[in-house]
Design goal:
This protein is 43% helix and 18% strand. Strands 1-2-3 form a 3-stranded antiparallel beta sheet, covered by helices on one side. It has one domain (3-143): Sufe protein. Chain: A. With 144 residues, it is an alpha+beta fold. Helix 1 (3-15) crosses helix 2, helix 2 packs parallel to helix 5 and helix 3 packs antiparallel against helix 5 (122-137). The protein contains 5 helices and 3 strands; from the N terminus they run αβββαααα. A hairpin with a 2-residue loop joins strand 2 and strand 3 (52-61).
């Protein structure tokens, strides 16, 4: 991916993140995720209905990488079934860890394909995905 396009996507998602702001509504699983080595501290809310991720919201303080990764993650995980979300999560984590992954599946998440060049930023790029990982641990949510 062109470095200018990469910067543009990250900056746009940092400055105008998707679904920022929590809601007071039942049916959401709330997960707090943070990086102990920096300011990143996010509350992520995920709503699963009819076997699919219906909504994801977040709020908190985080760097440009964590905030943009959360925004792009939301766009990519909305409407996904358990199996689709799991495949997306596994592919993303593989990319961050410099292992083989499905580039086509990740779409815009490929903006982080060179994050390994800054090892201290890997935690930032993975932060919101920890919440999705926790949601997927409760597979029963997708069976309601």
């Amino acid at each position: 991916m062109d470095s200018n396009l990469r910067r543009e996507i990250i900056l746009d998602n940092y400055q105008h993140p998707l679904h920022k702001g929590l809601v007071e509504e039942e049916g959401y699983q709330k997960i707090r995720t943070n990086n102990s080595s920096c300011i990143d501290d996010l509350m992520i809310m995920v709503k699963v209905e009819e076997g699919k991720i219906k909504d994801i919201r977040f709020d908190g303080e985080a760097c440009a990488i964590s905030t943009s990764a959360t925004s792009i993650m939301i766009r990519n995980f909305m409407g996904k079934t358990y199996e689709e979300a799991k495949a997306l999560l596994e592919s993303y984590e593989a990319m961050i860890d410099e292992k083989p992954y499905d580039k086509e599946l990740l779409g815009e998440l490929n903006v982080y394909d060179e994050i390994y060049k800054q090892p201290n930023r890997k935690k930032c790029a993975l932060l919101p995905f920890r919440a999705i990982h926790q949601i997927l641990e409760n597979k029963d949510l997708f069976n309601k």
